[in-house]
Amino acid sequence: MTQHASPPRDSTGKVPSAGAAPGWRGLMARADVRTLSLLGVLAALIVIGGITKPDEFLDTRNLQLVLTQGSVIGVVTVGMTFVIISGGIDLSVGAIVALASVWATTVATQEYGFAGILFTAVIVGVGCGLVNGVLIAYGAMVPFIATLAMLASARGLALQITDGKTQIVTVPSVLDLGERDAYVLGIPPLVMVFAVVTIIGWLVLNRTTFGRRSVAVGGNAEAARLAGIDVRRQRLYLYLLSGLCCGIAAFMLVILSGSGQNTNGNLYELDAIAAAIIGGTLLSGGRGTITGSVLGVLIFTTITNIFALNNLQSDVQQIAKGAIIVAAVLVQRRTASTT
């Protein structure tokens, strides 16, 4: 008598329908679609820029400028992506960048040269991240409130340090990194730093236990705790990571502008959150990609550049960014309701 093999069943004991893909394959497919969609939007923007201002937009110097400007906010966005994936938010990133940049450019700090400026910027960023992390993870404060308080405090301290004045950098080794002579094969040093941070961020999120724990905490914090993950410590590490990225971005901004100002990093929190959302990171946590966030940064930077070349006012740019954020969230909600 011929025996027939039993059809495979899923974890509930049901037979999956024909053509049904496993969950991870479905996630990968959706991620690929999002990435391709973002690449399509970026390509469309490049075409628009090439049509409206062909001589200016497609100029090598302008493209280098777009990448350089995107690099600073891009580094901040990498840290923000980790925080949002874990189910948190950080409204203080712009203020931390400002505080780190002015603290790193005081006369006393500049006496220690390149290393002193870099070290101070990073330490201030990590210190602010530590305060955020302790308040949120161990003080049980809502991330929105804790980081909003840090935003106000860091801005106020930055203003107090500078007394409202611009602090000019006089260290040649720092200023030289912003010159064209420092470009390697036509690539600005800041772009290379952004690339390195992006690669490290991608590897940490996708190839390490830390990345998997971050996703687990954002997906279901209680389930992650029951699985043996120290949720509070993980959240502390994530805000430390965000602060580190802010410190690195502050140093990059000092190189780019050759100064430290209390107005540095203005609205960086908006740009970083928007870029992460556009890239597919869920505001509720549990899902996100570094690749998508980077593409989101490039899209926003390109939009800003096109608007500037066409002499459109900054308020129009902010309106456009707000509309894009709303559209991205609506798409996320629609996608989540159909999966």
From TrEMBL:
GO cellular component entries: plasma membrane
Its membrane topology: Multi-pass membrane protein
Residues that span the membrane, as ranges: 33-51, 63-84, 91-108, 114-135, 142-162, 182-205, 236-256, 290-309
Keyword Membrane appears in the UniProt entry: yes
Subcellular locations according to the entry: Cell membrane
Main subcellular localisation: membrane
Residues forming coiled coils: none
A Pfam family per the record: BPD_transp_2
Name under which the protein is recorded: ABC transporter permease
Species for this entry: Streptomyces muensis
Lineage of source species: Bacteria, Bacillati, Actinomycetota, Actinomycetes, Kitasatosporales
